[in-house]
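Protein modeling request. Please complete all fields; requests missing the sequence field cannot be processed.
Requester role: graduate student
Desired output: 3D structure, token encoding
Chains: 1
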Amino acid sequence: MEPDLRQSVDLSLLPPARHSSDESRLSHKTRAPSEDDRDSAGARPKEPQLDSPKKGQKRGSIHNLLYEILSLLVSAASLAILIAVLSKYDNKPTPKWSLGPLGITLNAIVSILSTVFRGSLLMPVAQSISQFCWIWYTQPRPLRDVCDYDAASRGPLGSIRLLFRLRFIRFASIGAVITVAALALDPFFQQSVRYHSESAVDHDRNATAVAAYTWGTDIVPDEDLLLGYIALPYDMQVAMHTGVLSGNLVSFPDPPFMCPSGNCTWNPYNTLAISSKCIDITSHAKIDCDSGCHFTASEDIVMQNLLSRVDESGGDYLNDGADQWDPFRMEFVYIPDALPVLRPWADITGLLAMVQWVKATGPETLTLSSTTTFEAMQCGFYISVQVLVPTVHNGVYSEAVIREYVQSDNANSTPTFTANDTSFYFLNAYEGLTPAPPNLTYHPPIATPNQSPTNSTNTTFTFPFNAYYALTSQFLQAGFLTGDITRNATAGMNGPDNAIMLYRAANVTHAMHGLAQYMTTVIRAVGSTILKGDQQNNSVIAADHAVAGSVFVQKQFVAVRWAWLTLPIVLLVLAVVLLAVAWWETRRLGVGLWQSSPLALFFHGRMEGGARGFEGVGGVDTAEGMRGKAEGLWARIPREARGTVEVYEKDSLGKRGRSVGSSIELVSHNM
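Delivered output (671 residues):
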């Protein structure tokens, strides 16, 4: 009798249709070839010829983990790229990329990289779980555990089952935890990026404000100081009269500006201006009712000159005695006669004028009594160079004066006036135009490097003396900032128009500041005003007055929440540890690096006391090795024996497609 060449191999990893993991066993059974087999084959099939193991052959070489290592490197690289991209755009406007007509968002980049990370992370994790299955069987274990490991390597449900099977105390549990936790990777990646809206500079558009470097160079005033105002330009005269009547205005007119978005800022810059400074001197005056009620300011001679005419007994300007009085009186102060009270303005070169007033402020103004409430104020007007910081917010222009320069570079080295040990250096317009004093020139430190028309630190601001002379003349005009208001029970209120308007104003001090602001606006806008008239364009700004600013628009910004990237980083570290431990345990215990290969039980499985299978065959200690050996082998399940898997060499296939070779039969029975 010829020797039987059939080979039987255990098959627990194949998923047969009729198999119970709890009630199955593998048995090897020798089957004699049928007559049909012999007739169809025509010759006895070849027994698979497999190499014997070589001495000193290494199990689980690191080279056999090439794909797993590359996969982890891809995972680490994708995470590193994501972190680099997020770091670049953190707290910056949302980036916009284009791919032809298509746009690519940051969310798309995050999604792509997270998908690459998750896919490349789970491949070595699945292989490590499968490898721990073989390590698990270095000790006697239930065969059904193969199913648990196999399911765990395939997805989260199997991983959860394996966790309870291993009670979280085996290294394979790390792989199961990674597989389950990987379900949360996409939400964690998406949560790492948050968007918020905030203002950002639009570099494609320009904001423009105006500055003045000189004004009134063509003014030629009359020699007579009282007539010098006639030479003032029309827009300045209108501005000064309008400013006097601005006591009830909430805000003053804006200088020319251009802000395309309605939200703009400017760096501080210098401009020529008219400034005002007011001092409350109410404490200097009081009402004395010892012999008829009247005002007195015994310690302020300048104020006393004003108050001496405002009393209930009549005085120079009251005609009917106690039945009438003046609840408001304002006057222009002649500077040479007011030096004792001008100490706050002593260092100002271009002092134009000073006014003072007394105003009854209580509800009862028909009579003067000891309970009458009043205010007494002094305000000075002067030329300065202001350092401004304009802003436009939601279309509303505002500006803050952060500093001002009041001494001209060519101020007199000797004081113009001296009184009570105080030196005064302001110009004296009362001396007339002959000889004409020099123009006022200022060279303040440059506020910002972008100020036009020059970036030089020697930017010169010039105010001609003729213009100074004409403005002083306007302040001297009767009825402009002078006048008395007389009230009585029968005649009502009498006085100059400006005085009546100021008396009725809610805040006279506000009107004085408004006067200075209106004058400054004209000085800064004069070039642009002429240009607007010539071009019939209200938005044009003269280039020699323009100061560039920044246009702000609402942009979407990226805010990276780095804590959400903790999970991907931890899972990557655990995956590296898992693969390293799996490889180390494989080497230490001498297990083949079979991983998830379904060929492992073909080549290495056998029943105790049964057929030998492929045990001892060389080159099948790794999944790659088993795949190489399997290339020369064929397998089938014959019709007449569905519980049998036949394995044979490729060249033993008969003409009719049948084979006679190694066979494996799966026999199920009840325990």
